[in-house]
User: What shape does this take?
Amino acid sequence: MLLGILLCAGQAGFVRSCLTYFLGGLLKKKAFNLNNSDLLGLTAIVHLLINPRLFMNIGAILSYILVLGLKVIKSESSFKQGMLLNLLLTPLLLFNFYQVNIFTVFFETVK
Assistant: This one.
């Protein structure tokens, strides 16, 4: 995992997923029971200890909010879940990039 983090130049999404996997395995081994939201919060705290300016990067903000949205929104259909997640991210995307792609939901749900 460390090699992957070095190769991806510390991209927030990849580091977040590696930290979540590592902390989840470590806590499971030590018999600590945390739910997914608490594990995400612990991951954010550890990630902030590594990179204190983490949330000054829009990629990190989008990554953490999207994962939190996936944890909160548990829908039966992937189309409904995609719509709700896009509604969650739309204000941030419009504020930072002044554009949003409305076809993302359709392209993600087509298999």
About this structure: The chain has a mean pLDDT of 88.
